[in-house]
Amino acid sequence: KNQVEQSPQSLIILEGKNCTLQCNYTVSPFSNLRWYKQDTGRGPVSLTIMTFSENTKSNGRYTATLDADTKQSSLHITASQLSDSASYICVVSSGFQKLVFGTGTRLLVSP
Amino acid sequence: NAGVTQTPKFRILKIGQSMTLQCTQDMNHNYMYWYRQDPGMGLKLIYYSVGAGITDKGEVPNGYNVSRSTTEDFPLRLELAAPSQTSVYFCASSWEGGQYFGAGTRLSVL
Asked: Do B42 and A4 touch (CB under 8 A)?
């Protein structure tokens, strides 16, 4: 069964600290992996998209990594800000219109 | 450039009522989607469209209908609302680089 599992479910960190969110998937075949940020009461916003051949991709303070062999991805947030408080969703695509969404990691950045 | 706009933002329905969730995008994207997001669950695809006049079912289409008469608009219709349809609904449009989501419609069926 195609699944995307994210950990931890929730996380609290102090402002200015770094953190890493994990995504493990069993989706096959693999087309690409996306990370989205979803603020409370808003729709998801794309952070990064990685294909099979890409190991890392950055978007400002966000850096995503992909290990296609172990089917794992991580999202690293550097020097966290209060505005980083949100849910972070990992999404794996197995082809045209076949997206499997993770349940997200809820991050709270505390002052 | 407004992106993807959904209306209404909130709605409460009684069981058996019907309603249409509106979605419009101004980015000239061919692909559009409707998802539902239940608490603690990942987004589930209800219906999608690859262009005007073309729609297809997603993972959870039962109880919903869609139409796509123009590139811009992709309304979602609930004919006989049921409590199981209480959820947050997201419309999205996409190009090759990724999806753009609307702000969502929070629907409660009581």
From this structure: yes
